[in-house]
């Protein structure tokens, strides 16, 4: 075979492979367009919809197809977990058979009852400390700030008190972009699945001071606006409401000052928001500023001066996260708000 034909054949094969990869990539983007758009929103804080494409019926069908497949999968697994109720089956049979209907007890008709008086407002006793028993569990909620602190807390709780914990902290998450990661929903599902949880520790914030999406095709809510705050507070309140419904205590850790002035000012705003909601629900609030020695809303230093005059580094060079020392200091302060009842100390 001439060399020219060999080269031509190889070129055609390479072209076919390249075309196949491009088509496959396009199909994957078509099916996963919602996930890609949500990631783009969370990363770049913009709508990320492609003009002229997002509203195309054929293009949007890919998103609907993926949603339908997800719904079908969820319904399939939910169906597998269902247990048929014998009494429902009996009632169904009786409903179709006149002779069997007589054997099914009739539902008694109750006399009208006067409407009860509205309950008195719930009196909330503010927490001063979170009380736990050795059989209880602790649930860690948050972003990369919590990812650094949670392991130290979990280690102390387990080794010293034999208390288990659930750490679902995830970097780049917060409350502003539930389409990317929905913390209120995650808290709800986790509390339903783990009945031993008696304390939630929340630590997040730096990923949230941005304009916030509300619905596809609608303008973003501008950060710090009244609408933004109302929507954001609803998400914070949802976590507190879930905790109250499950008789779970909450320690909410407010983020500290940051190196960059704009981000630090935003953290001061969020701290007040978190603190006001924690106080409203009678739960515990801890400002990381108090731990790191920041005595106002603007000061920042990567170092903390200890009692003996030595300086220890508590923040890493990005001006956001903590060194191991900083993580441990915050973990220790959180532990000071927890009282373990009826325990046998296993390690000091």
From TrEMBL:
Pfam families: DUF459
GO MF annotation terms: hydrolase activity, acting on ester bonds
Record's keyword annotation contains Transmembrane helix: yes
Annotated transmembrane regions: 12-31
Alphabetical UniProt keywords: Membrane, Transmembrane, Transmembrane helix
Name under which the protein is recorded: DUF459 domain-containing protein
Naturally occurring in which organism (per UniProt): Pseudomonas eucalypticola
